[in-house]
Amino acid sequence: MGPGTSRPAEGVGGVSGAGNGAAGPDEAAAPGGPHAEAHRPHADRPRVTELRLSAFAAHRGAGFPLGPLSLLVGPSGSGKSSALRAYEALARLGGGAELGEVFPDPAACVPERARPDAQRRRGFRIGCTADGPEGPVRLDVAVQVEPHLRIVGERLTAGGRTLLETALRDPDRRAVQAAWHTAGSSLVTRAPLPDDRLGTALLPLRVAGRTDGQRQVLAAAEQMVVALRSVFVCDPLPHAIRPDVPLGAGRLLRGCGNLAEVLRRTRSECGRRHGLLVDAVRAGCAGPVRDVLAETVIAGADGTVRALLDRGDGLRTPLGRLGNGELRYLALALVLLTGPGVLEVDLAGEVPAALQTLTVLVDGFDRDLDARQREGLVRLAARMCERGHIRLVGAVSDASWAAGVDGVTVVDLGP
């Protein structure tokens, strides 16, 4: 398979492969697109169903269809990590972050062989499709890196109609000229927008919603922003999980270094989910497991806690004694079985939780895991993702072990 192609895991319903030549801001959008999900479960929950890297790092003209559970597979250097980085960047821009915060090293995102134009400008292009109540909505963004970091073009489209388009008209001004669909006394409304923020995320503050056209723009923009914002980037670091940790807010960080204090919270707040976690840990860790708990080591406001496995015979094993694979397995199982209230996630507070989908991004999903742990974790992920409230995009070097697991979309980035 070539770069950007996809295949369902064996025994899974078909998802068409991604072609090369994904549309950028200057290209027309096809309603629905070839990568629209074959069926539309949970259609009331906005979700990202395609990631496009028209020109980003090692990728050119690449489009990756995303199902509820997607595994990006390919050898080292195929661009798995950069694809996840682009997804995270779009999520942060959708949440209103400034361009410089999102891309602290923007030069690394420019394709290596990209040549500057006559004005010595270079940059990159990324985009995505968000499906939901408004149908497929496409967002494509062009970012200039040299000589100045700025968004120089953005296009939001739905149903074959351009709802928002921005372009850099005056390089000496830190603004782009925006035009959004109105369908009132004038077809479009024009106004400047800052060149360091995503225009789509600003539309709810700029569009009045008086005409049918304006309401369509608002609905599409809100669908895109809600689909993008609820993202949790997770890379469990075993060396950070092992020590005792101070008490805090009880929201899991991306490296899972505060896993012990989160376990202390989840065990007391939701017995049913904690029971499911214990079942999962029992299946993926060596030796008997009766419970997973956290005990206070030092009491008080400056106290610390330690996570343990209760072996059921009076023996309690600190997590610090577990192997790297066991710790990563436990942490990822906890992420899958909890929710955004327990994870360090930027939620769309104005949207009910029942209408949001959490997307978990995991680089090295199978890192340090043995065969039993990999299969158990992907089956747990498939069960949770099937419910519609959570999606997962993971990067793996090989996905043959996922064959036969229903609900897995494998996206092949190899040559």
Characterize the structure shown.
The chain is α+β, with helices and mostly antiparallel strands and 415 residues long. It folds into two domains: 9-67 and 76-229, no CATH class; 238-345, no CATH class. Helices cover 25% and strands 28% of the residues. It has an eight-stranded antiparallel sheet with strand order 3-2-5-6-7-8-9-10, covered by helices on one side. A six-stranded mixed sheet has the order 1-18-4-17-16-11. Strands 12, 13, 14 and 15 form a four-stranded antiparallel sheet that branches. Helix 8 (324-337) runs parallel beside helix 9. The radius of gyration is 22 Å and the shape is elongated.
Query: What is the structural class?
Result: alpha+beta
* Mean pLDDT over the full residue set: 87
**What spatial form do the alpha-carbon principal axes imply?**
elongated
- How would you spell out the order of helices and strands? EEEEHHEEEEEEHHEHEHHEEEHEHEE
Number of domains: 2
Helix content: 25-40%
Largest sheet: 8 strands, antiparallel
The percentage of residues in β strands lies in: 25-35%
Spatial order of strands in the largest sheet: 3-2-5-6-7-8-9-10
Low-confidence stretches: 7-41
Number of strands: 18
Report the C-alpha radius of gyration, rounded.
Answer: 22 Å
Through-space gap between termini: 7 Å
Question: Helical region count?
Answer: 9
